[in-house]
Amino acid sequence: MTQPNGIPLDTAAIVSTVLEGIIYGFSVLMFIGTLWALMQRRLSSGVNRRMTSVACLLLFFSTAHMVIDIIRTQEGLVRYRDTFKSPTLSGPVGFFSDVAQWSFVYKNMLYMLQTLVGDGVVIYRCYVVWQSWYIIVVPVLLWGSVATTGIGSVYSISRATTNQENIFAPGTGPWITAFLAATLFTNIFSTSLLAYRIWAVGRQVSNLQSRKSVLSPVLRIILDAGVLYSISLLAALLCFVAKNRGHYVLLDMIMPIISITFYMVIIRITMAKSASQGAIQGTSGFTPRFSTMSRGRTFEDQQRYPLKPMEVHITQLTETNGEGLLKDEGASPTSASPGPLV
Question: How far apart are CA 220 and CA 152, in angstroms?
């Protein structure tokens, strides 16, 4: 069996905790910004409780994971530094190699829950913009595979007896590989469905109005969040397949990254909406005057050749049922428009 390679486990524990702490601090700031954005947009119709609950849940999982990592680092480097013994290793390296430690089991359980929530939000957004249960059948099945492999990974780690000092062992390695691959494919597939729908509707709106659609910034936001998460997952999966201990660092960093990808979508869509409304309000002071068109016309001319009303199409961000809605105000009732994304 190929031996694990990469940085020593005690070094990996320090590096992962420090990097996770930095990203976690940034995610807390973005959480505050997310609450502000949600309340800013719902002052007249009430706070979006669904998205607020998800934001709080992601922060809770990230905080609990951060606390466990700090405790685990303290136990491995200080408390059990000279007393921890294992069949082949001892000291800090032996402690961090033991996958059956309660701290390692619980932090992986939190990572699984965080992943399920993050992937579930992307699938929910797919349903919102498509407004069809048939579209999300495959993403939901993929989400079920993430849950199954995640539970299997946590269970195999908690029950590890032989080869408990090797996370890449046959008893745990295949479960973790399957879990990382399942969540990567789920994220890519769901984000692709979401991005395609927004692109298709934006293209339809821009063709009708012969100008750039307001949905283009939203599409970039969704793609940015999806790419950030996918690259992190791909790096962690490649490290694990290559049996490189760097995956310890990457997995700890992904915890707050999942929260950040959720927060950045809400904050940036709110900013894009505010900019769009500001542009519309900036032109609201212009009032066209058509009185000169009827000057010099007799009453008989006005009756014989009446002026027809002109229909104006304006695409803007509006509020419907307390949730942000991207729609074409002048489009026909049959024209497709995505539902609330946040």
Answer: 35
Per residue in 246-291, pLDDT (tens digit) is 899 999 999 999 999 999 988 888 777 766 555 545 544 444 443 4
Report the SS3 class of residue 327: strand
Can you state the angle between helices 137-158 and 102-130, rounded to 10 degrees? 180
Q: First CA to last CA across the chain, in angstroms? A: 47
Residue 4 above 60 pLDDT? yes
Provide φ and ψ at 129, rounded to 5°.
-80, -25
Distance of CA 110 to the CA centre of its chain: 16
Query: Which residues fall within 8 angstroms of residue 157, CB to CB, at 6 or more apart?
Result: 99, 100, 104, 105, 108, 167, 172
Burial of 292: CB neighbours in 10 Å, binned 0-12, 13-18, 19+? exposed
Q: Are 245 and 12 in contact (CB under 8 A)?
A: yes
Contact 213, 203 (CB under 8 A): yes
Question: Is residue 7 within 8 Å of 245, Cβ to Cβ?
Answer: yes
Residues 6+ apart with CB under 8 A from 24: 62, 63, 66, 255, 256
**Rounded Cα distance, 127 and 136, in Å:** 6
Which residues 6+ apart lie within 8 Å of 195 measured at CB?
A: 219, 222, 223, 226
The model scores a pTM over 0.90: no
Domain ranges in the chain are 9-278
Average pLDDT of span 301-313: 46
**Enclosing H/E stretch for 330:** none
Q: What percent of the chain has pLDDT over 90?
A: 43
Q: How far apart are CA 41 and CA 136, in angstroms?
A: 28
Fold of 9-278: Rhopdopsin 7-helix transmembrane proteins (1.20.1070)
Residue 250: both structure tokens together: 């990457």
Helices (H), 210-317: 215-241, 246-282, 299-304
Percent of the chain with pLDDT strictly greater than 70: 71
